[in-house]
Amino acid sequence: MVVIFLDFVKLHEFEKPNDETALSLMNSSSAAVLEEFPDIIFAYGYSDEYSFVFKKTSRFYQRRASKILSLVASFFAAVYVAKWKEFFPQKKLEYAPSFTSKVVSCASVEVLQAYLAWRQLDCHANNQYDTCFWMLVKSGKSISEAQEVLKDTQKQQKNELLFQNFGINYKTLPELFRQGSCLFKKKVDETVKHDENGNPVKRLRRKAVFVHSENISGINFWNEQPSLYNDLGHFTKDIGKIEPDFIRLFQFENKLLPLTWAVVRIDGCHFHRFSDVHEFEKPNDEQALKLMNSCAVAVLKEFENIHFAYGVSDEYSFVLKKESELYKRQSSKIISAVTSFFTSTYVLQWGEFFPHKELKYPPSFDGRAVCYPTYNILLDYLAWRQVDCHINNQYNTCFWMLVKSGKTKTQSQDYLKGTQTREKNELLSRQFGIEYNSLPQIFRMGSSVFRLKSLIFVVTC
Questions:
Q1: 69 is a domain residue
Q2: Average pLDDT over residues 325-340
């Protein structure tokens, strides 16, 4: 899977042609991804992209592409924002980044080898060009003049240009720039505690490590790493000429049906745990819901093709207009871009809604896209989500009031088993003095976000 970072380099004034700190942030975020998802065996990244390789036998989310690509992009985005201050302590993150992702299904280890060779060749070619280009620009040439100088130049000519004009030997530039970064889990000695005499007690643990190599698809590099060939297979020979078109044949892509209402629905991943760890108020935390709403508003501002959104609890549905050609209706890009932007905004705005509560770990959301051919079917979908909001909120309100009154969770579940709407309302009124229909609409009905001319509104109804 490939995660590609949308360019916000100019606004944040990254160093050209390479910003080492920005690359280190990308690497740190990818390391967190490997720690979060055990089925990811290997990662390779450079510039603004990262490829994550799952083990062949992975059943992660039962191999549903939309779940996999949205979760990885979402978590990567969350970590990127959460770690920003660690890497750029003097530089404000001006806006939430977003990432697009897609799935490449490698049918054999030979296809995986060809894919990795292709990405590293792209790293070599792009970095060499960018190094020449920005050195020319820094020397006084305009962007168009620099492009003209480099037009149709070959690898050797670029090397000569750098050496003759700027005294730069390309091969001595940092490996991080020229070769990209490999990341995989390796058994290492790690101190877990100290004994009574103060001596370190070490254990072998699988830990993500970074390696740089001139040829990550070569048999010498690959077969020297037992953790790689045991999980992904052996490379039997070095690869020759790379055919990108061959690799593209294995890319999983599904386009949304034209002229249909497309709905991207995102859901919090393991949000029961997230809400417990962050001590959200039960059954509803108004500040948490307002944070979700604020993120939805940001999504509508970022993606003009989205005209309406409906949200409840830890989910949000975003409706793209029928005529939308966002990302040429490629579902993987639409899902990952919306999900990752929502997630990075959630992390970025956390302090505004919870100024006295630390974000203890980055959240993640998964996404999917469904097309609805008519307006009436779209309305049926939205009605279904709102009915679900009502049913869940009414049950949760009863459940948590019972728990707070002293019952165990199991007792509360048994008590509510088989009860209907009227019975739940009577329970709330009789035992707790709560009139369900008088509870805040944001809890009972969810929230709608929509455009009206140039303005965006949030309503509960």
A1: no
A2: 96
Kindly write down the DSSP assignment for every residue of 430-449, as one continuous string. HHH---GGGS-HHHHT-EEE
Nearest residue to 257 via CA among 313, 317, 325: 325
pLDDT tens digits for range 102-143: 998 888 898 999 999 999 999 999 999 999 999 999 999 999
What secondary structure letter does DSSP report for 230?
H
Amino acid sitting at position 68: I
Structure tokens at 418: 């088989």
Residue 417 domain flag: yes
Q: How far is CA 447 from CA 4, 293, 344, 443, in A?
A: 31, 7, 20, 9
Give the pLDDT score at 81: 98
* Measured distance CA(34)–CA(208) in Å, rounded: 7
- Determine if the peptide bond prior to 244 is cis (ω within 30°): no
CATH number at 280 reads 3.30.70.3000
**How many domains are contained in the chain?**
1
Q: What Rg value do the Cα atoms of the chain yield, rounded?
A: 26
For residue 435, CA distances in Å to 260, 368, 425 come to: 41, 36, 7
Contact between 272 and 282 (Cβ < 8 Å): no
Q: Confirm whether 266 is domain-assigned.
A: yes
Contacts of 41 (CB under 8 A, 6+ apart): 53, 54, 55, 184, 185, 227, 228, 231, 232
Question: Bridge partners of 45?
Answer: 50, 181
Q: What are the start-end ranges of the E strands in 199-358? A: 200-211, 251-252, 261-268, 306-312, 315-320
Q: Contact 268/365 with Cβ under 8 angstroms?
A: yes
Containing structural domain, residue 375: 261-459
Kindly report, residue by residue over 297-317, the tens digit of the pLDDT.
Answer: 999 999 999 999 999 999 999
Distances (CA, A) of 261 to 314, 324, 334: 22, 9, 14
Q: What is the C-alpha separation between 423 and 414, in angstroms, rounded?
A: 14
- Tokens 């010498």 found at: 220
Nearest CA among 213, 234, 212 for reference residue 56? 234
Q: Does the predicted model carry a pTM greater than 0.90?
A: yes
Residue 446 within a domain: yes
